[in-house]
Structures are given as structure tokens and as C-alpha cells.
């Protein structure tokens, strides 16, 4: 069994939005229970992602979600907050991995060996699974925030910088889940303050 190393896929969702947390997924898949249809979450429909997320949670050896809040993003910067979310996701696994395969080219410090893979969410099934869990968890969280802050359209755009979001920011300013260090949010706040 010594040759069987436990590989965990790690990916995040929500680096670019102006509002909401950043979310990371970590997944160790079961090689005896492969899940068909895994791919980069951005290439899948919402319905397909939701279906796959349930299968991942059921059939993976273990999985975990990690978060970094808008406050942590503002305090640390998005890169460090992203690392924090990934660290929390990996630490939350019930089985410690030997290796973490991380989507992109920037690995956080972890207690196991790490390798980065650009476009990994479309190549490695474990990273695809992590990508799907991060995206579905973050989307669900933004839908919850939409009930709390209905004037911004979070359920629709998930906090990304679309015109409707920009218009709402200019009209009513930022809410508590906005990332104040992000330029469009700062600009909207300054405009309303003046």
C-alpha cells in the first residue's frame, strides 16, 4: 500500500468578484468510485455542477470547503486570503493527503507536498471536483446574501462586476459583504461620501 499516495485536488472560486467571500474546495477522490463528467466548473451548466457536487460529496474519500471572508480579503489581500481559504479546505479533510494538486500557478503553504497545474481544473479529476464544490458552495452563499441584501442582484451575478452590480453600487453604495479594497467598490463609496 505504500505506493498508493493520497492526492487531493484544490481549487478556489470567487477571486475576482467585488463582493462576498473567496471559497476553496479540497477533494480526495476514491479511485474505486470514479465520477463521470468531472470538468472545470466554469465549463459546466449550473444544473450539471449541482448534480456533480452531490456525487462528489457521496463518492469521494473525503472533501472539505474552506472560506476567507470579505474582511480577511481586505485585511490580507486577495492572494493571501485565497491561500487561507485553500489551507482551511485542506486542513478540514478527514484524511491527510500526501500531495495537493492545486489549480493555477500559486500554491499556499500546506502540511503536504504541493504541485501547481495551470488549467488543472480541466485536466485532473480531483481538481475538477474541488472546483465544482468551491463554485457550488460560493454560489449558494451568494444566493443567501441576496436575501439579506436584495438591492444588488447577488443571486444573479454572484458579486462579479457586471453593469447591474456597478449601477447598484453607484446608487446605494457598498454593503457589509463588499470588498472595500477593490477599486470599483472604493470608487463607489468615495462618490457617495462626497
TrEMBL record:
Q: Which UniProt keywords apply?
A: Cytoplasm, Endonuclease, Hydrolase, Manganese, Metal-binding, Nuclease
Where found, per UniProt?
Answer: Cytoplasm
> What is the uppermost EC class here?
hydrolase
- EC number(s) stated in the UniProt entry for this protein: 3.1.26.4
Claim: Transferase is one of the keywords in the record: no
Main subcellular localisation: cytoplasm
Domain RNase H type-2 per the UniProt entry, residue ranges = 5-194
Q: Which reaction(s) does its UniProt entry say it catalyses?
A: Endonucleolytic cleavage to 5'-phosphomonoester
Q: Which cofactor does it need?
A: Mg(2+); Mn(2+)
Q: What GO terms in the biological process aspect are recorded for it? A: DNA replication, removal of RNA primer; mismatch repair
The note on cofactor binding and number reads: Manganese or magnesium. Binds 1 divalent metal ion per monomer in the absence of substrate. May bind a second metal ion after substrate binding.
**Binding-site list for a divalent metal cation:** 11-12, 103
Q: Does the keyword Hydrolase apply?
A: yes
Which CDD domains does the protein's record reference? Answer: RNase_HII_bacteria_HII_like
Which Gene Ontology CC terms are recorded? Answer: cytoplasm; ribonuclease H2 complex
Q: From the UniProt record, which GO molecular function terms apply?
A: manganese ion binding; RNA binding; RNA-DNA hybrid ribonuclease activity
Q: What does this protein do?
A: Endonuclease that specifically degrades the RNA of RNA-DNA hybrids.
Q: Which family does it belong to?
A: Belongs to the RNase HII family.
Could you tell me what this protein is called? Ribonuclease HII
The species is Hirschia baltica (strain ATCC 49814 / DSM 5838 / IFAM 1418)
Name the encoding gene, please: rnhB
Amino acid at each position: 500500500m505504500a505506493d498508493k499516495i493520497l492526492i487531493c485536488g484544490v481549487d478556489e472560486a470567487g477571486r475576482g468578484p467585488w463582493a462576498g467571500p473567496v471559497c476553496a474546495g479540497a477533494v480526495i477522490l476514491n479511485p474505486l468510485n470514479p465520477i463521470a463528467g468531472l470538468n472545470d466548473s466554469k465549463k459546466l451548466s449550473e444544473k450539471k455542477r449541482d448534480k456533480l457536487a452531490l456525487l462528489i460529496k457521496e463518492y469521494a474519500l473525503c472533501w472539505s470547503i474552506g472560506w476567507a471572508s470579505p474582511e480577511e480579503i481586505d485585511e490580507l489581500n486577495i492572494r493571501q486570503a485565497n491561500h487561507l481559504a485553500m489551507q482551511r479546505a485542506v486542513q478540514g479533510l478527514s484524511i491527510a493527503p500526501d500531495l495537493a494538486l492545486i489549480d493555477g500557478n500559486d500554491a499556499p503553504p500546506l502540511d503536504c507536498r504541493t504541485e501547481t497545474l495551470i488549467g488543472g481544473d480541466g485536466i485532473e479529476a480531483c481538481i475538477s471536483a474541488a472546483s465544482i464544490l468551491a463554485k457550488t458552495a460560493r454560489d449558494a452563499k451568494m444566493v443567501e446574501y441576496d436575501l439579506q441584501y436584495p438591492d444588488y442582484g447577488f443571486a444573479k451575478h454572484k458579486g462579479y462586476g457586471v453593469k447591474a452590480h456597478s449601477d447598484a453600487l453607484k446608487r446605494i453604495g457598498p454593503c457589509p459583504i463588499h470588498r472595500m479594497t477593490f477599486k470599483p467598490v472604493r470608487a463607489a463609496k468615495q462618490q457617495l461620501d462626497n
